[in-house]
Amino acid sequence: MPFNRPFLIGNELEYIKQAIASGKISGDGLFTKKASDFFTGKFGFRKTLLTSSCTDALEMAAILC
């Protein structure tokens, strides 16, 4: 796999266009909701909280401990 070449297998470019058109490209948009709903349903979580980075996730985990 070439370095830094995106791996596209389906509708990714269309989804990017939709996100840009919605004006919400940094979170809390349609695709954030879809991802959250997916994880909630797939794993039976009561609630999911998606973060923009691993650093943010680790920080929140440390605060919760």
Please describe the structure with a list of short key phrases separated by commas or semicolons.
65 residues; mainly alpha; 0% strand; extended
Strand content: under 5%
Helix content: 55-70%
Low-confidence stretches: none
Mean pLDDT, to the nearest integer, reads 90
Shape: extended
SSE succession: HHH
- End-to-end Cα distance: 39 Å
Report the major sheet.
none
Rg, nearest Å: 15 Å
Compute the number of strand runs: 0
Oligomer description? single chain
Number of helices: 3
Secondary-structure class: mainly alpha
Q: Mind explaining what this structure looks like?
A:
There is one protein chain. The chain is mainly α. It has a domain at 27-64. It is 55% helix and 0% strand. The chain contains 3 helices and no strands. The chain starts with 11 loop residues before the first helix and ends with a helix.
Write the layout of secondary structure elements.
Blueprint (H helix, E strand, L loop, with lengths): L11 H11 L7 H14 L10 H11 L1
Give a nutshell description of this structure.
The chain has 65 residues and is mostly helical. The chain has three helices and no strands.
